[in-house]
């Protein structure tokens, strides 16, 4: 997933898919799916928009579900709708918990924040043996020339996202969009030795703030794989 591609507010169930028109593409069909739209709207609010929308967020990133559902964009959405999206999300983007004090339901995005979340549940990866054998950032061929020169940027987010494997690896749930056509494999031990930090999120995504400028420079690119229409290595220069 490109680190700077944040989600934007999405229309929600009740205004979707009722025009009777046949979707023109698979992506448009997915965007008209109420659960997909709800997932995208939750992602935006919990990762980027909570403060601007007046929501109180705990140090570990949780927000009261009732407060989220009070926003106009979630009109007509029930707690059961939210629970279903959380439970069925293949990438485990969200977590639910009862509030530690009074037990009311709270929700968090597990990673992808541009908001500062000081106690997000991240596991530091301190030794080369802590790192996955493969750490790959998914992007698009059109972005590769610029990335090849300047490196990966966290852009507006707190971290650069890396999948703990390549597309098709059965254990990889999140960290890379399914339509990415380039995977940049990072030399984790080399970056770690140079002081680059890595963390594992609650849903298994590997996160890195990059260097002091927020970049993973090209010197840490181990290999670059074009994923489609067929897999082949791309030159690093």
UniProtKB/TrEMBL annotation:
One protein family per Pfam: PTS_2-RNA
Domain of life assignment: Eukaryota
The protein's role, per its UniProt record: Catalyzes the last step of tRNA splicing, the transfer of the splice junction 2'-phosphate from ligated tRNA to NAD to produce ADP-ribose 1''-2'' cyclic phosphate.
Keywords assigned by UniProt, alphabetized: NAD, Transferase
Catalytic reaction annotation: 2'-phospho-[ligated tRNA] + NAD(+) = mature tRNA + ADP-alpha-D-ribose 1'',2''-cyclic phosphate + nicotinamide
Biased composition (Basic residues): 19-29
Biological process, per Gene Ontology: tRNA splicing, via endonucleolytic cleavage and ligation
Name of this protein: 2'-phosphotransferase
Region (Disordered): 1-34
Sequence similarity: Belongs to the KptA/TPT1 family.
The EC number(s) this enzyme carries: 2.7.1.160
GO MF, one example: tRNA 2'-phosphotransferase activity
């Amino acid at each position: 997933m490109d680190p700077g591609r944040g989600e934007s507010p999405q229309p929600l169930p009740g205004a979707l898919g009722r025009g009777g028109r046949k979707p023109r593409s698979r992506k448009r069909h997915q965007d008209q799916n109420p659960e997909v739209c709800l997932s995208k709207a939750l992602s935006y609010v919990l990762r980027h928009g909570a403060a601007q929308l007046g929501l109180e967020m705990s140090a570990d990133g949780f927000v009261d579900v009732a407060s989220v559902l009070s926003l106009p964009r979630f009109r007509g959405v029930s707690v059961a709708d939210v629970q279903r999206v959380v439970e069925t999300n293949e990438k485990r983007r969200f977590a639910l918990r009862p509030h530690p004090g009074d037990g009311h339901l709270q929700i968090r995005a597990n990673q992808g924040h541009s908001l500062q979340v000081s106690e997000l549940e991240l596991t530091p990866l301190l030794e080369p043996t802590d790192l996955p054998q493969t750490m790959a950032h998914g992007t698009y061929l059109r972005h590769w020339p610029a990335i090849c020169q300047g490196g990966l940027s966290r852009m507006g987010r707190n971290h650069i996202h890396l999948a703990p494997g390549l597309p098709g690896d059965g254990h990889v749930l999140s960290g890379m969009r399914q339509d990415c056509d380039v995977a940049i494999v990072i030399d984790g031990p080399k970056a770690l030795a140079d002081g680059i930090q890595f963390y594992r999120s609650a849903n298994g995504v590997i996160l890195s703030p990059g260097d002091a400028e927020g970049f993973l420079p090209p010197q840490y690119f181990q290999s670059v794989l074009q994923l489609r229409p067929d897999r082949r290595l791309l030159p690093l220069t």
